[in-house]
Specification:
The complex is a heterodimer of chains A (333) and B (326). Chain A has 16 helices and two strands. Chain A has 333 residues and is an all-alpha fold. Chain A has a two-stranded antiparallel ribbon with strand order 1-2. In chain A, a hairpin with a 2-residue loop joins strand 1 and strand 2. Chain A starts with a helix and ends in a 5-residue tail after the last helix. The relative contact order of chain A is 0.18. Chain B is of the alpha/beta class and 326 residues long. Chain B has two domains: 217 residues, Rossmann fold, CATH 3.40.50; 61 residues, no CATH class. Chain B is built from 13 helices and ten strands. Chain B is globular and about 70 Å long. Chains A and B meet through helix 9, helix 10, helix 11, helix 12 and helix 16 of A and helix 4, helix 5 and helix 8 of B. Chain A: It is found in: Cell membrane.
Chain lengths: 333, 326
């Protein structure tokens, strides 16, 4: 019974975990790309990694916390501009190819030795190197606090302050995205998603709108990278293709082109992911299945199941949890 | 069956009734347009009294094939001009060039005296030359009303910096909605305003596309095969709408395959073949131009393929025999 409670507790903790907020943030950005504008960004992890690097390096260079956040946003913006300028004139598929390779390039540059001084090479940046300025912003002080079964330190890496800050930022960005996507500007994006030539024929500068969406979503992705780095460390290999596909799963699970989809998707995804892994471990330890699914295989099987989930989702419920089934019926032109 | 008398009449009488319809102007505006066009020579590249669009030496080559090679074309302001010709004549390519959706190898064209060459599709539309597409581009996952509002021009809310401040654009949005509902009512789509455009029938999508183009208050409206895939009952209504646009002072340029439609509503016909303009004139005279008829429309262009008489093997045999002799 104790074990059962522990599994439930860990699952519950995932709902408010800082990493869940980080993925929600990245998915909000990706939603602006894909859900609203129809841009196939297959390298959101690249934006996140660049945001994390920008934040970490700026902090280590002695810049104050808010400025370091701005550096992260600027990094995402510049990356989006560089990727968008040659590709947004072309057909959508090209952006997918370019983003996936650009994200890999960022990762390989990050883990190479010639920028080791700043990026820490393959081992990345240690948390203690860049977290002090963030911890200094905490109004909560030292000590611990318990809320129901969840108990964390007030200030620190895995703390209440990290959670409050991360979810506060998600809420703020979500409010902003909600405001802009319900506006005529958001309507133009949706028009472009449906048929960009039709929008062009009505006198709209499609390229400019696509660039705005790419930059905004990329900058939000970079912010997601910052949130991801706050409770952990900045390790280039932890922020690669797998991360991109997790962000995609989160966004599609919640529902593309819905406002709360990315947040709900992230919560459901990570809670289910945690439940699945801790549950499998418990089952493997305590029953005969342990001979087949050993504890050391749980991570791999978990990863496989995420892939299967993404496929099932796209095939059987492409509109996600919050999406409108009716709206999706016209997907084919 | 639609109640269109031409379907049951013989080919010759179709031509006559159509010509009669075309030369019976209802409005003074139309009378003036026809009077002006009466002074124009029936030759390719003829100068018009009030040319709103003028194209010179426009060439577009795809590899070794010359798709468009137009020496000179003037489009009369306030008139309905039809651009006809066989498949592959370069009509749509020429349309794409004029509207900035394609770039020519050489050539220049102007709108109201201002050069349009090299302008982007969006810029052309902003100036007042708005087009529709052969394959209808309804924005499926937007509602009919959203489709219309998207076309509204100078909407401050379409600027990212203002978009999150609703008070900066709500007034414009309200006015645009009223205008959109008026236009939709005219096209009998107002009851569908909150439906997704993807749920409309093919013909309704054509209407929506035309209505959407009107939202931009265009000076020139260019329709690429507006009747394609539309049922005969709706064709009549579409023709009426196009004539109404002309009578409101808009210039209409349209590409069409349906000769019946062309004869009914156009004030001027431009015939293209193999990328060139080969003939120009009022519908009645161009249609009677034997060279145009034979070479570009086919000898039996007058024969309605939906005509029941074609089911009669005797008539079919006679037509085939005539074709043999030619």
């Amino acid at each position: 019974m104790d074990e059962f409670n522990r599994i439930l507790e860990q699952t519950l903790a995932e709902f408010i975990a800082p990493t869940t907020a980080a993925y929600a943030m990245a998915a909000i950005g990706l939603n602006l790309h894909f859900g609203y504008t129809g841009l196939l960004n297959m390298g959101q992890a690249g934006f996140m990694l660049l945001g994390a690097y920008g934040f970490g390096i700026a902090t280590m260079a002695g810049l104050p916390f808010p400025v370091a956040i701005l550096v992260a946003l600027a990094a995402g913006t510049v990356f989006a501009l560089i990727l968008g300028m040659p590709t947004l004139q072309l057909r959508g598929d090209y952006l997918a190819i370019v983003t996936i390779s650009a994200a890999e390039i960022i990762r390989w540059i990050g883990r190479s030795t010639w920028l080791q001084e700043w990026t820490g090479g393959a081992s990345g940046l240690q948390g203690r190197d860049y977290k002090d300025s963030f911890h200094a912003t905490s109004p909560l002080g030292d000590g611990r606090m318990a809320l129901g079964p969840l108990e964390y330190i007030n200030t620190g890496s895995d703390s209440w302050w990290t959670r409050i800050f991360a979810w506060g930022l998600v809420a703020l960005v979500l409010l902003f995205v909600w405001l802009i996507t319900r506006s005529p500007w958001g309507r133009v994006l949706k028009g472009i998603r449906e048929d960009e030539d039709a929008v062009r024929a009505l006198g709209k500068n499609v390229y400019a709108y696509k660039m705005q969406a790419l930059v905004l979503g990329g900058a939000i992705g970079a912010l997601g990278g910052v949130l991801y780095a706050l409770p952990l460390a900045i390790a280039p290999d932890a922020m690669s293709r797998t991360m991109t596909f997790f962000v995609w799963t989160v966004m599609l699970l919640g529902g593309a082109a819905t406002v709360f989809g990315p947040v709900l998707g992230s919560m459901v995804f990570f809670a289910a992911y945690m439940l699945m892994r801790t549950g499998m471990r418990a089952v493997a330890d305590n029953t005969g299945i342990g001979d087949v699914i050993t504890t050391s295989n749980v991570e791999q099987i978990g990863g496989m199941l995420v892939g299967v989930t993404l496929m099932l989702l796209v095939i059987f419920r492409p509109q996600g949890i919050l999406g409108n089934k009716r709206e999706l019926a016209f997907n084919a032109h | 069956m639609p109640t269109d008398e031409s379907i049951t009449t013989t080919p010759e009488s179709v031509a006559d009734t159509a010509a009669a319809a075309a030369v019976a102007p209802v409005t003074t505006h139309h009378q003036q347009v026809l009077a002006k066009l009466a002074t124009v020579d029936h030759v390719p590249g003829a100068a018009k009294p009030d040319a709103i669009i003028t194209a010179d030496h426009v060439t577009r080559r795809f590899g070794g094939m010359t798709a468009v090679d137009v020496d000179h074309l003037e489009v009369q302001e306030g008139a309905i001009t039809a651009l006809i010709g066989p498949n592959g004549a370069g009509k749509t390519t020429f349309f794409n060039l004029l509207t900035g959706f394609d770039r020519p190898n050489q050539g220049s064209w102007t709108f109201q005296g201002r050069s349009l060459s090299g302008k982007s599709a969006a810029a052309v539309a902003k100036i007042g030359v708005v087009r529709t597409f052969q394959l209808t581009k309804a924005l499926s996952r937007l509602t009919v009303l959203q489709n219309m509002l998207l076309a509204s021009t100078h909407n401050p809310g379409e600027n990212l910096w203002l978009s999150w401040l609703p008070f900066t654009w709500q007034k414009h949005e309200k006015a645009a909605t009223e205008k959109a509902m008026e236009i939709l009512a005219r096209f009998k789509l107002d009851t569908k305003a909150s439906d997704f455009a993807g749920s409309l029938s093919g013909g309704q999508r054509k209407l929506l596309e035309m209505a959407r183009a009107l939202m931009t208050d265009p000076t020139v409206i260019m329709l690429d095969e507006p009747m394609a895939g539309v049922n005969p009952a709706l064709v009549q209504s579409l023709l009426g709408h196009i004539q109404a646009l002309r009578d409101e002072g808009m210039t209409v340029l349209f590409v069409e395959h349906d000769m019946h439609a062309v004869r009914h509503i156009s004030d001027w016909v431009v015939v293209m073949a193999e990328g060139r303009i080969v003939a120009e004139g009022p519908p009645a005279s161009v249609m009677r131009d034997q060279a145009v008829v034979d070479a570009y429309l086919g000898a039996h262009h007058d024969t309605d393929l939906g005509d029941d008489s074609l089911l009669d093997p005797k008539i079919l045999a006679r037509l085939e025999a005539e074709e043999e002799k030619r």
